[in-house]
Design goal:
- By secondary structure, the protein is an alpha/beta fold.
- The chain has one domain: Aldolase class I (TIM Barrel, Alpha-Beta Barrel), CATH 3.20.20.
- Helices cover 31% and strands 15% of the residues.
- It contains eleven helices and eleven strands.
- Strands 1, 2, 3, 4, 5, 6, 7, 8, 9, 10 and 11 form an eleven-stranded mixed sheet that branches.
- The chain starts with a helix and ends with a strand.
C-alpha cells in the first residue's frame, strides 16, 4: 500500500473513535456510532443547518466570489451571547439536515461548482472526524479548493494532529484567556488552558496566512477575537499571547458583539461595545506590533446577525457578491478592513 492510500485509510478510520468520543476537550466518552450523544448533542451523522456562499467573512476568506460555508449544527461551547444559537444550542427545534460523509462531500463539490473561493466548515470541533472523512471523499471526486476550519478555539490538539494535511486555513477564535469568563459566558471550565496549545498546533501545521495575487487566502492561520464590553483586560491578554506567538500573526479584531440569546441575563455584557473600548483594543494591538489585523466598523454589531429560520440566514449583502471589493468595506461601511 502506498503512502497516499495509507494516509487515506488512517483518516477514514478516524470515525471509529466515536465509539468512545474524545474528539474535543470535553471527552464525553459516549458511543456516538450507536446514536448516543454527549455535550454537543450530535451523533455519528453530521447535522448541517446551512450550506451556501457567504460574503461576510474577512476579505481573504470571502474575497469577491464568496466563501463556501457549511454550518454544522451543535457545539461544544454554550456561549450565552451566541449569535448562532438557533443552530449551535437549539438546532433540534429548527431547520437542519442530517448528512452522511458522502452527502457532505457532494455539498462541497456543489459549492466548488458555484465558484466559492474555499470550503469553510463553521463549528467543526465536535464533528472533526466526520469532516475529515468527507474531505477525503470530496478530494477523490475532484475537490481542489482550500479547506477552512472555522472553530471556536476549543479543539482537541490530538484530533487536530490526526487530520494534519486536510485543512489549509485555520480560522479559530481566541475568546478568553481567563477561565472565569469562559465558565461564566461559555459554560467551559478550561478554555484558557486549552486554546494556547490549539493555536500553536494550528500555526505549526499551516504557518502564517498566505494569499494569492488577488489577496485570497490559500493557506495559513487567521485568528479571530471578539471584543466583549467591559472585558478589555481579557482582550489584552489574548493579544499579548498572539503577539508572543509571532508579531506576524494575522488577527481579526471583531467589534460586532451585541447582547444576543441569554446575554440579557448578564448585566456586565448586556450592551454593545463603545467606540472608546474598541479604539483602546485597536491601539493596544498596534502597540504590540500586531499590524496584520482586520478591524470592523463599530456599527457592525447589527449587520452580521443571522436568522437560521430563513432560507437565506444572512442579510442580502452578506449573501450576494458585488457589494464591496476585498478590504474596502461595504456600502454601509460594515465590512472588515485592514487595521493599518
Amino acid at each position: 500500500m502506498d503512502s497516499k492510500k495509507s494516509d487515506e485509510t488512517k483518516n477514514r478510520s478516524l470515525t471509529d473513535q466515536l465509539t468512545r468520543c474524545a474528539c474535543c476537550p470535553r471527552k464525553c466518552q459516549v458511543n456516538r456510532l450507536e446514536g448516543k450523544t454527549g455535550f454537543c448533542g450530535v451523533g455519528a451523522d453530521v447535522q448541517v443547518s446551512h450550506v451556501g456562499l457567504h460574503f461576510g467573512e474577512e476579505p481573504p476568506i470571502s474575497g469577491t466570489k464568496g466563501s463556501g460555508t457549511i454550518f454544522f449544527s451543535g457545539c461544544n461551547l454554550r456561549c450565552v451571547f451566541c449569535q448562532n444559537h438557533q443552530i449551535s444550542q437549539e438546532f433540534k427545534k429548527g431547520r437542519t439536515q442530517t448528512l452522511t460523509s458522502n452527502q457532505l462531500a457532494l455539498e462541497m463539490l456543489r459549492l466548488q461548482d458555484k465558484g466559492a473561493h474555499n470550503i469553510n466548515f463553521v463549528s467543526p470541533s465536535h464533528v472533526i472526524f466526520q469532516m475529515a472523512e468527507a474531505i477525503l471523499l470530496a478530494r477523490e471526486k475532484g475537490l481542489s479548493l482550500p479547506v477552512v476550519y472555522n472553530s471556536g478555539g476549543y479543539d482537541s490538539v490530538d484530533a487536530l494532529r490526526q487530520i494534519h494535511g486536510l485543512v489549509d486555513i485555520y480560522l479559530p477564535d481566541i475568546k478568553y484567556l481567563d477561565n472565569e469568563l469562559g465558565k461564566r459566558f461559555s459554560g467551559v471550565e478550561d478554555y484558557a488552558d486549552i486554546v494556547p496549545g490549539v493555536l500553536m498546533e494550528m500555526l505549526d501545521q499551516v504557518g502564517h496566512l498566505k494569499t494569492d495575487e488577488d489577496g485570497i487566502a490559500m493557506g495559513g492561520l487567521l485568528v479571530r477575537h471578539l471584543v466583549l464590553p467591559g472585558c478589555l483586560d481579557n482582550s489584552q491578554k489574548c493579544l499579548r499571547f498572539l503577539a508572543g506567538l509571532s508579531s506576524n500573526i494575522h488577527v481579526s479584531l471583531m467589534s460586532q458583539y451585541s447582547p444576543q440569546y441569554k446575554a440579557c441575563n448578564y448585566p456586565e455584557i448586556n450592551r454593545t461595545l463603545t467606540a472608546e473600548e474598541y479604539d483602546e483594543i485597536q491601539n493596544y494591538a498596534l502597540d504590540l506590533g500586531l499590524e496584520n489585523a482586520f478591524v470592523q466598523e463599530l456599527e457592525s454589531y447589527d449587520h452580521y446577525l443571522p436568522d437560521f429560520e430563513r432560507e437565506s440566514p444572512f442579510t442580502t449583502d452578506l449573501s450576494v457578491p458585488g457589494v464591496s471589493a476585498p478590504g474596502e468595506g461595504s456600502k454601509k461601511g460594515k465590512r472588515h478592513k485592514a487595521l493599518v
